[in-house]
Amino acid sequence: MAETTPELTHARAAQLIDRLARLLRDEIAAIGQGQLARVEELYPRKAELLGEIETAFGSGKKYFEGDDAQSQKLRRKLDDLRDLIHTDLALLKRMTEATGAVAREIERIRDRQSLRGLYDRDGTPKEGPVTPSQRFDKSI
Fold it and tell me: What residue ranges do the domains of the chain occupy?
């Protein structure tokens, strides 16, 4: 049996917008608190809700274009939602950039501490062999 999508009404549209706004606020708070596991946990719900909104609003233009109070309220909610989305996106971008910077620094440290040679105190590579030559007593 195929699942049917409930008919979009002003109330249902407002409910969907509110649910996504609440989820975005939770995600923004989790990012601010450094709870990256929580951000990952919220992702499937966000993706599912976005799909639900796309499906519901695909034919719901009439609910936003009117001059009545309900349509104006929905437009304000969408404006607020857009602002939340931009804030969330900016935080996610910064988080991604910071993670990339940490990964690059770890790689740089790993390369410096590898077996690629010895380095002076200022970080420049030393010339010559990595290990001194060893002498063996062959007199036995």
Answer: 10-112
pLDDT > 90: percent of the chain: 29
C-alpha–C-alpha distance, residues 99 and 106, integer Å:
11
Specify whether the CB–CB gap between 85 and 36 falls below 8 A: no
- The count of other CB atoms within 10 Å of the CB of residue 39 is 21
Give the orientation angle of helix 10-32 with respect to helix 69-112, to 10 degrees.
30
Backbone angle region of 30, left / alpha / beta, with phi > 0 → left and psi within -120 to 50 → alpha: alpha
> What is the total residue count of the chain?
140
How much is the pTM? Answer: 0.66
Query: Cβ–Cβ contacts within 10 Å for residue 61, how many?
Result: 8
Residue 55 structure tokens: 């499906």
Assigned CATH for 10-112: 1.20.58
Q: Measuring CA to CA, how many Å separate 67 from each of 57, 94, 139?
A: 18, 39, 104
Residue with tokens 């002003």: 10
